[in-house]
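Please check this record.
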Amino acid sequence: MTPPPKRKTGSRTDGKVTLKTIAEHLGLTAGTVSAALNNSAAARSIPEHTKNRIIEAAQELNYRPNFFARTLRLKRTYTIGVIAEEIGDAYGALIISGIEEYLRKNNYFFLTVIHRHDPKLLQAYAQMLLTRGVEGFITTDTSIQQKLALPTVAVAGHQPVEGVTNIVLDHKRAARLALEHLQGLGHENIAFIRGQTISSDSAVRWAAICEVAQELGIPIRPELTIQLEGVDSTPAIGYPFAKQLLGRKEHFTALFAYNDISAIGSIWAFREAGLRVPEDISIVGFDDIPGAAYANPGLTTVRQPLVRMGQIAAQTLVDQIEERGENVQEIAIEPEFVVRESTGPAPQRQARVNQERVAGRSATEGL
């Protein structure tokens, strides 16, 4: 008698865990399991503890959903289009990291395009993503002027546009944190590096700085103000503009830079000129990119929670696609202020402190 053929091992169907497998394991219907794992509209009627049991069982059994089957069944792609200005810079990378983290946990994919502030590319890439079946857009550092064809969330978007939710930092609060810190250290002559005109945050941030400076009585002098130009995403972008400020021969004891990379580049320029940071010039940056803490000296900066902003953007867009909650035009994010070694007392104040210390020691010695 010929023995039956042995079953092949290692095939794609060996040990395959399906929705039916999970349903039988839990004593539920496959429809209930599918609704919970896909977070569909039907899932709203499933008790929370049952959803948790389903998710835990799927993890325990190492369930891997068939993306293509789900796409065909539900006539959806579960794909987001991310339109970014730059992917290699720390700002954009941190936001995209937050987007990726949220989408991955919620079984969404994303496609990324880089437009480098070219309006023609922006429109062309948006259309290209549409043809690839994306269900919504997330933009970073991108000025959207008109409504797009799908739900859209803009990180650092400031223009009110129908159908677009803007994720914005409270720039006035950020400006107040930085300027009050410098003013409290005795700095009266403060220089400023403004952002590039192509950056979506530039105009809003500068307007906030000007408003807060006026409230605090801090003069903003044209000769101590310079604007970044170019698209370099490294500290080298700040170096030549800091040198230009020094070349004007105008006295200043502190610099508030548009972002961390320009602040770090400025440190190089000041040191090259024989100036010490913070003993001669204090420097404040903006963003708190990972390299800010490891600059020499460590950079005092306004922290934007960039990863969290990416997560919020992704969650907001998915909620809109899944028709959960109400659409809002703006979500405000609070900044934090991180004090490190790049700021210190203004030189004239430090001189007074040193004199007082000397006088105090002399008085003590005379007793």
Residues 4-14 have pLDDT under 50 and may be disordered. Residues 347-365 form the longest helix (19 residues).
